[in-house]
Structure formats: C-alpha cells, structure tokens
Write a structure and sequence with these properties.
mainly alpha, 60% helix, single chain, Serine Threonine Protein Phosphatase 5, Tetratricopeptide repeat
C-alpha cells in the first residue's frame, strides 16, 4: 500500500511550460550569427562564374557550392527566395543524364538540403520545372532513401 504523505514537492513543477501551445523557437543560434547564404551580388557572380551549359563537372561544382551556402538558419525570406532561384536555375540547367552523377557526388547533408529545395520548387512550379524536379526527386530518393524525405518533412528549418 502507498503511504499517505503530506509532501507537496511534486506540485512545484510548472506543467504548463510543457504545453505545445506555449512553444517558443530557439533564437540563440540566429542572434549569434548573421544569416548565411548568397546575397544578390554573390548570386550574379556565381551565375557568371559557372557557365551551366559547358560541362558536367562545372554543373556539379555549382550545385555543391549553392547547397553549401544554403540560408537554412536565416529568417530573411528574400535571401531564401534568391537562393531558391539560383538552385532552381542550377537544377533545371542539368540534363537528365547528368542528374544521377550529380546526386552521387553529394553527401548526406547536401542531399537533405537538395531535397528541401526540390520540395520548395514544387511549391512554386514554373514552365517545365515539375517534370525535372520529379526526376531529381527520384534520383535523390534512390540514393538517400526514405530517411531523407522524413528528415526534410520533419525539420523545422526551411530553405
């Protein structure tokens, strides 16, 4: 049998702090570092530096550079939109035969970021982009598996 105690120590815990309606995002990482990602000048220099129609190696390096500089932790929507435009330009400029080689050249973190951009590209389709993005999605899924999709859909940090 349980003993009847007059202890009320258990009542000192504020259970309301664990309520999901009172959730507050962590701002500590954002306040310490400025938003990462290419600004408008970097995007223009990037486009001029990598001619997308020359060869596969330049396309893969362009993709790696864009994914490395993705503004994931930024709250500035204009920076994220500008980065999306560059990523979409790189993705749509690659031929279907180059997609598998490009995906195989990326590591797991870059594949997750790429999948985030693919889903973001699905949100705002342009002429002919949906078919190309589906091809990218298929190749990324083949390499990274379902775990990549789950990580992207459950991650709070958006691109």
């Amino acid at each position: 049998m349980a003993k009847n105690t007059s202890s009320s120590a258990f009542r000192k815990i504020d259970v309301d702090q664990y309520n999901e309606d009172n959730y507050k995002e962590d701002d500590c990482g954002e306040s310490q570092s400025p938003p990462v990602g290419p600004d408008e000048k970097e995007i223009i220099n990037f486009i001029n530096q990598y001619p997308f129609n020359k060869n596969t190696f330049k396309n893969i390096e362009a993709l790696k550079t864009v994914l490395r500089n993705a503004p994931i932790s930024s709250r500035n929507q204009m920076v994220k939109d500008a980065a999306l435009n560059v990523v979409m330009q790189v993705l749509l400029s690659m031929k279907s035969s180059q997609i598998e080689e490009a995906v195989n050249a990326l590591d797991r973190d870059h594949l997750d970021i790429l999948m985030k951009y693919i889903y973001r590209g699905f949100e705002t389709p342009s002429e002919g982009s949906s078919g190309q993005l589906l091809a990218w999605h298929e190749k990324v899924h083949a390499v990274a598996g379902v775990g990549c999709i789950v990580r992207v859909l459950t991650d709070k940090k958006r691109v």
